[in-house]
Structure formats: structure tokens, C-alpha cells
Write a structure and sequence with these properties.
About 30% of the residues lie in helices and about 20% in strands. The protein has about 350 residues and is α+β, with helices and mostly antiparallel strands. It has one domain: 4-Layer Sandwich (Glutamine Phosphoribosylpyrophosphate, subunit 1, domain 1), CATH 3.60.20. Strands 4-3-2-6-5-1-11-12 form an 8-stranded mixed β-sheet. The protein has a 5-stranded mixed β-sheet with strand order 7-8-9-10-13, covered by helices on one side. The protein starts with a helix and ends with a strand.
Length: about 350
């Protein structure tokens, strides 16, 4: 048994040794590690992402980080004036102003960044990355996001193309039941906000996720949101855990569709957690769809059989490179590139 003096010296020595070890650890920042073996490189995206996945895979095969790859991929779609779901040419809000949302996540470093309601900048995904890398924040919105983008050299431009303007004017001309303003109603009111005029409210997004050669997983979701939305409306795309989630030990998931439903369910993080629990990507996406169905209780959002009138789609892969997608309703496809051939569209599973 140690004497009191010896015991005191022993504790002092142990304390000093522990402090020295902590100091040594603090002096060398921990490096990202992965204990889960990675599968072959992979890039997946929503159905409008054939070019995005092809570009992402080409860069990955050249040794690029997955985040660089997915951003280069979605930039192609953001720059395309004929794709009205994102970036240049995106459909405007009800005031005729294009507002963009985007989020990014970098699995190896566990970081994320996002912007919402960003005006006049065609590549919100790139601004989201800078929020991640050059601030101590995760999400910047509105005028603050624009000011931040301009400080980093982004150039303002008018994103409203003639085609998008014509669609907005057509919507304006068919107004009353075509907007998002609702009168007082209860959970049982069936027809509040019903679309009486024959005008479909377009919406769209691109989600792109990738696994690189080093086992790094990253993702991006970028959108112009629901067409003709109330100014300032933010959907799920820039909200980490809803429109995008990446865990470098497990996999990645992203979504498109009704953002409000996905926000309430925080679905993308749930898809990844379902995969952590052992579900395959497709099964995890289906469970997320069922979670939304169970959570949707407002009668105005349900058909006569109690099923959602809207759709939400998910895209996911796990660390081993298994991929899958699912939606509430059929007919959706997602883009896949495994590096062995050209990008292709794959039919996803569905609940109904």
C-alpha cells in the first residue's frame, strides 16, 4: 500500500502526464478517420441529374474529393436556363423574384453549410460551401446571404428568364385558388387551397450525393423551391437533416418533393439512421416515406383514401456503395453513375 506522501507524488505525476497527453492532443488536430470499409465510387442524383452524376464521376475518377465532384455536377444544372427547378431560369416566388436555397455536407470533416432565400446569385450551392468553409455558421438567409456572397466575389444577375416570367404571368392570371394563402380551417376541412384552375404548380430540386475513391461521402441539394411561393418561403433543401444528410460512417440521403412535409419529418437524417440500423438504402427510403404518410393528418392534404395528395422522393446510398430510392407515389426515377458506364436513370420504389 502506498504511503500518503508516495500516493500524493503518484497522483501528481499521473496528473502531469495526463495534462501532457492532452496538450499533445490539442497541438495536433484530430484527422478525419473512417472505420467502415468503403465501396466503389458512386454518384447518385434526382432525375434531372444525369449530367450532374456524369460530371461528378469524371472528377472522382481523377481523384477529386466527393464535395468538389457533386458541386461541379449540380453547377451544370444551376447554370442551365432550361431547367426551371434551380439557379438561372428557376421559377420565381409570387412576387416574380427568384429565390434560391441550397445545402452541402462534407462527410470526412463532418461539416455542413447552407443558404436560403438567396436572390441574384445563380449558384447557391457554391455559396453554401463557403458558409461551411469560411464562417462559424451553418445557415445564412436572405439579404445576409447575398451580402456574404458578394463579399466573396459572386456577381449579381437577374435570374428570371423569359420562359420563367411567362409561366409566372400565367399563374398570376389564374389566381385566387392558386396561391398559398389559406383561410382559417380545421384538421378536417377537405378543400382548403384546392386548385380550381387547371394550372399545375411546378416544383423541383436537384440532390446529388457521391462516394469518392478515398471513402469520402459528400452531398448537395439545391433548388429554386416551389414555384410562385410566398416570398421568403424556405423548404427542406437548405435544412440539414431534412433535404440532405451525410454521415461518413454510414452513407448519404437527399430528397425532392413537398418540402413542408419533409421538414416536419426531418426525413434525410432518418434515412441515414435507418441505414445505420441495417436497412438497405431502398428500404430506408420507403420507411421515410411511410413516416411522412403517418405524420400527415391535415384533411386538405389527403385524398379520399387518406393518402397524401403530394409526393416526396428520396435518394440514398450506404458506405458500401449500395444505392436506392423511393417515393410515396410511382413514376419517379433517379440518376446513377457507378463509373463503369454512362449515367443512367433507375426506377425507384414507391408506397402506393
Amino acid at each position: 500500500m502506498l504511503s500518503p506522501l508516495t500516493r500524493r507524488r503518484f497522483l501528481q505525476a499521473a496528473t502531469l502526464a495526463g495534462a501532457g497527453q492532452l496538450a499533445s492532443q490539442a497541438a495536433a488536430p484530430p484527422q478525419p478517420t473512417s472505420s467502415t470499409p468503403a465501396g466503389r465510387p458512386l454518384a447518385i442524383a434526382s432525375g434531372n441529374g444525369l449530367q450532374a452524376t456524369a460530371r461528378a464521376m469524371a472528377l472522382i475518377q481523377q481523384g477529386a474529393d466527393a464535395l468538389d465532384a457533386v458541386l461541379a455536377g449540380v453547377n451544370l444544372v444551376e447554370d442551365d436556363p432550361n431547367d426551371h427547378t434551380v439557379g438561372l431560369g428557376g421559377y420565381p416566388n409570387e412576387a416574380g423574384v427568384v429565390e434560391l436555397d441550397a445545402s452541402v455536407m462534407h462527410g470526412p470533416t463532418g461539416r455542413g453549410g447552407a443558404v436560403a432565400a438567396l436572390q441574384n446569385i445563380r449558384n447557391p450551392s457554391n455559396v453554401a460551401r463557403l458558409v461551411m468553409e469560411r464562417t462559424d455558421h451553418v445557415l445564412l438567409v436572405g439579404a445576409g446571404a447575398l451580402q456574404f456572397a458578394k463579399a466573396h466575389g459572386f456577381t449579381e444577375e437577374n435570374l428570371l428568364t423569359n420562359a420563367a416570367r411567362e409561366a409566372w404571368l400565367k399563374w398570376k392570371e389564374s389566381l385566387s385558388a392558386q396561391d398559398d394563402w389559406l383561410p382559417p380551417h380545421s384538421i378536417q376541412t377537405p378543400d382548403v387551397g384546392a386548385r380550381r384552375a387547371p394550372f399545375a404548380r411546378p416544383y423541383g430540386t436537384i440532390n446529388c450525393n457521391a462516394l469518392d475513391q478515398r471513402g469520402g461521402i459528400s452531398g448537395c441539394t439545391t433548388t429554386s423551391g416551389l414555384a410562385f411561393k410566398i416570398p421568403g418561403r424556405v423548404g427542406d433543401s437548405p435544412i440539414l437533416g431534412a433535404g440532405l444528410w451525410v454521415d461518413n460512417e454510414v452513407g448519404a440521403a437527399g430528397s425532392t418533393g413537398r418540402g413542408e412535409a419533409n421538414l416536419l419529418a426531418c426525413s434525410s437524417v432518418m434515412v441515414v439512421e435507418y441505414m445505420r440500423q441495417g436497412l438497405a438504402p431502398e428500404a430506408a427510403c420507403l420507411r421515410a416515406c411511410q413516416r411522412i404518410v403517418t405524420q400527415t393528418k391535415m384533411r386538405r392534404l389527403l385524398d379520399d383514401q387518406g393518402r397524401p395528395k403530394f409526393n416526396v422522393s428520396f435518394y440514398a446510398f450506404n458506405k458500401q456503395g449500395d444505392f436506392g430510392g423511393a417515393a410515396i407515389w410511382p413514376g419517379f426515377k433517379f440518376a446513377v453513375n457507378t463509373g463503369e458506364a454512362e449515367s443512367r436513370l433507375v426506377a425507384g420504389a414507391h408506397l402506393y
